[in-house]
Amino acid sequence: MPAAHNRAVVAWRSAAYPIDVPPVMAALRTLEKTLSDTSEAWARMPAGAQKDALQENLGEVLTAWQDLANRVAARQGLSRGDYAGLLTQAQMLNQTALALQAQATAG
């Protein structure tokens, strides 16, 4: 039987350091909640031209959200600036969704 080999294990540990990354995931979760609330408000609207127009606008925002979610999921290789751009887009879409929600609630 071969003799057991002594192996040295070396572990390096550094002090904790903060990683400064734009909070894109938090913004995306906020957007998803807003879109859910907006969709529910739209569903409660009475049938009519206003509901139809809002449906089209909401559909466009949902398509943009899906594109954004796909880009966030495939974020490897994005520069810090590009990743920060995703945060800006999520925030802008959230503002648009809030405006649509206000229309749906008022209508």
Could you characterize what this model shows?
The mean pLDDT is 88. Helix 1 packs antiparallel against helix 2 and helix 1 runs parallel beside helix 3 (80-106). The radius of gyration is 23 Å and the shape is elongated. The chain has helices at residues 24-43, 49-73, 80-106. Helix content is 67%, strand content 0%.
Please state the CA-atom Rg, rounded to the nearest Å: 23 Å
Number of helices: 3
How would you sum up the major sheet?
none
As residue ranges, the low-confidence spans are: none
Helix content: 55-70%
Short description:
The protein is an all-alpha fold and 107 residues long. The protein has helices at residues 24-43, 49-73, 80-106.
Topology:
Layout: H1 24-43, H2 49-73, H3 80-106
Helix pairs in contact: 1-2, 1-3, 2-3
Summarize this structure as a short list of keywords or feature phrases:
107 residues; 3 helices; single chain; mainly alpha; elongated
